[in-house]
Amino acid sequence: MFQPLSREAMARRLARDIPEGSYVNLGIGMPVLVAAHLPPGREIVLHSENGILGMGPPPAEGEADLDLINAGKQPVTLLAGGSYFHHADSFAMMRGGHLDICVMGGMQVAANGDLANWSLGRPGEPPAVGGAMDLAVGARSVYIMMEHTTKSGEPKIVERCTYPLTGAGVVDRIYTDLAVIDVTPEGLRVRDMIDGMTLKTLQERTGAPLRAD
């Protein structure tokens, strides 16, 4: 038997893979949890699309500055040397290729790295893409953090996305509650699995072929 990772554990697993000296955007939702799990002593500069560079972990209880928030409107802290600025400057950083990694949530990721994370394609659904498209094409590496399946058990890693795309062929790595999977020109390669998980069991929960070296 196996026990899927909690969201906090997923954030901890992803955080340990971020290289020293990286400039990293954390998207809305699960990705913001990564800020609290960066390895001590590792210099990593966090960016938020609403205009923060040098974002720190969440504030301690009772110490939140409600004027200092991330793109998801959650209170954050600012590290020494950090700054905040107009969101137009923030988007210039994103579009200009100045971010090493962006971490985003996902609704679907295809075998070729296509990403859908902003719409279920329902008629009349209001647009809510935010800066996801800019990040998907502007960051040097795109990491997706999401549960491996939907609540009803449908795979979120698929052969081809059926939801409206955020970006085509943009995803480099997927972190789920079951595994870490790289998107490569040869297909999806399993980098790591949780304790008790087998490739066969993981494949049963995935809508695209997997391989393990």
Automatic annotation (TrEMBL):
Q: Does the keyword Transferase apply?
A: yes
InterPro entries assigned to the protein according to its UniProt record, in alphabetical order: 3-oxoacid_CoA-transf_B (IPR012791), CoA_trans_fam_I (IPR004165), CoA_transf_AS (IPR004164), NagB/RpiA_transferase-like (IPR037171)
Q: Name one Pfam family in it.
A: CoA_trans
Q: Which UniProt keywords apply?
A: Transferase
GO molecular function terms listed in the Swiss-Prot or TrEMBL record: CoA-transferase activity
Matching entries from NCBIfam families are given as:
pcaJ_scoB_fam
Family (UniProt): Belongs to the 3-oxoacid CoA-transferase subunit B family.
Q: Which PANTHER family match?
A: KETOACID-COENZYME A TRANSFERASE (PTHR13707), SUCCINYL-COA:3-KETOACID COENZYME A TRANSFERASE SUBUNIT B-RELATED (PTHR13707:SF57)
**Protein known as:** 3-oxoadipate CoA-transferase
Q: Which organism is it from?
A: Achromobacter pulmonis
